[in-house]
Write a structure and sequence with these properties.
alpha+beta; TIM Barrel; 2 domains; 5-stranded mixed beta sheet; disordered N terminus
Length: about 425
Amino acid sequence: MFPRSKWLNVIFSTGACVAGCTVSSQCEPPEHAVISPDDRAPRGGDESCANDPHSTPELRVYRNPYANVDWLRDRRLIAQFHDHAQTRTDYIDLYDAAGYDVISLFHYIGVPQVEAAWKEVHWPPEAWLPNGYTESLSSIEQFYPGGEHAASWHLTGPFLSEYIELWDASKDPVKLDHHYETDQELIDLITAGGGYPVLAHPWAPVSHFSNLTGLHAIEIYSAFGEINYLSGVADVQPNDLMEAVWDDALERDPNIYGIAVNDWRGPFCKTEDCLAHPRATDSGKVELIAHRASLPDIEAAFASGAMFAVKDYGLTKLRYPRVESIEVDSSSIVITARGEVRWISHGEQVGVGEQLELDTLPLNSRYVRAEISDADGSIVFVQPFVLAYVGDVDGDGDVDSRDSELCEQVVAGLDTLPDHVAAVAAVDDCG
């Protein structure tokens, strides 16, 4: 068994498409038929549709996290979304020397039961760092607000600049608006405050997290977990558990992104374990793809999923596989990259190579993601592409009368949501 208590101790010190005929079919569907993501074939369709070569539902990419990326002009920014540099300039200097572009003044925050936890958000950085220090950095161009929160589990809140706190009734008899008690309340407070709730180091059985909703991302690789496994502190590979939690969460919400982090094991780590495992030290990072290194641009990239989670396992860092471009059309996804590409959907490998044809996937597939690896053991995790049937305008996994209504609203110019507009563009008509 994986000793959770040990870790907690360590951490705290579309229309005609209705009923299964695509819009190109002339079959008339039953009035209330629905295509369900639980079926590998459409249900409720007219028998004559079975003889129509166009009657089988078709999958399309409903949401592409890289849709707005300019692969020739956008910048690749190396970012860290969980490590405890705090306000220590010696730690920040080492992150700067390691080539990072984006980091946070980051530590435990809002946990009164932990003496070392911060009691206010350390933002803006100029208010907490020596005068003129940020201008002296050679690589780091941008800081963002963030910290590590805790209820029954830990979450981080990138871009949250409001202070929130685990409620301690002995300290505050009345629960206030900035207090939370449960993991779900913590997620909701981070979101309400303009942050992005990220499940931190979920190295527990997937059932432990199955009731959580509203997550923006999940940590799927941790240098902290890797080093502790290699050094024998953990008897189960934490990163396998974390990736399994991600795939399980994607079953319920295919819009959840994956990130990789260092968590105490970044470039400043000089402990015996870090020195003994140089491949694992400073191995968890995120590559943001943004127009500029401005705070709005890096937040936009993080919000939309225009990023890669990176297990940087080379002895020389920042030589992990490079993704040159990702192209999505009506029938395929093509990743041009320097490395071996494998495709994963619902926890199973469904293809290898740079090109994936959507018609090779089971019809009930709700997402597909990719991993790109090299001989060093480095892995670049590509964010999930959300899949839907042609005609599924709202992206809820089925095609019903609601999709026909939305289709007509888009055609009339009353609905301009990008996902809906793109979905309607994939069909011939709404009825």
